[in-house]
Design goal:
InterPro entries: MetalloPept_cat_dom_sf, Peptidase_M10/M27/M57. With 276 residues, this protein is an alpha/beta fold. It has a five-stranded mixed sheet with strand order 6-5-7-9-8, covered by helices on one side. A three-stranded antiparallel sheet has the order 1-2-3. A two-stranded antiparallel sheet has the order 4-10. Helix 4 crosses helix 5. It is built from seven helices and ten strands.
Length: 276
Amino acid sequence: MKNRILSLAVLSLLISSIYSCSKEKNAEVAEKQEEISASTLAQIKKLGFNTHEVQKMENGYLVEGDILLTEAHLNEAAVNTNLNIAETEQYRTTNIVKNLPRTITVSVTGLDIKFSQALDIVIKRYNDLGLKLKFQRATTGTKGIIDIKGFYQGPDFLGRIVLASGGFPTSSGNPYAQILFNTHSAGYSSKSLEQIAGVLQHEIGHNIGFRHTDYANRAYSCGGSRDNEGQAGVGAIRIPGTPSAPDSESFMLACVGSNPRTFNANDVVALNYLYK
């Protein structure tokens, strides 16, 4: 009888523990869901982004999967509302890099050797195009105009993980100053050199003014239902000479999967139009 009472006590304790863990988990999910206020979501929606993909980051809110919107972005009025409903033409932001010809220095801070090697690959890819906008490594020990650094963040309560992010040029004509790579084991630290180079090339594209090629229909590369990202207060201006037909190999597709990408012919047309 004594053993039976003891067993019931242990069972009761176990049930209590499971219930407690469940409550803590639910509270954690609720807390994370409430991290982004309704007013902030309303601002993001007003700019044209789909709010179900928004993630809270240290310096702002991640949209489109890899674009960091700061509070300043959210408070800026839209300068250009050019929304061409197409499939995969190339689009640029209202702001692009000015004062050409110009050389942009790039640094890598606190990341392992693969990221440094990937940067060398990407610098060569851009510079081989002969643009008026060139890139070079910042002097050792100094921070470049664009700094590539890491952050550590695991999957959120929906199982999503941020892999990398960039931003858009400033109104003064400077590129966005930062690119972030997630050093979590499920992030890009575990990827190959070519995969890292492909993503870095893509994020630099954002930093100098490129929107996603399929911004008007993210379903083209990401799957799911049709989803127009909107002009987002930063503009979505079609680049002349780029095709309206689907372009499955563009380096600026919203979702590129695990296949490394570099520039295709249409990407080169777009880069030449802006920076040749």
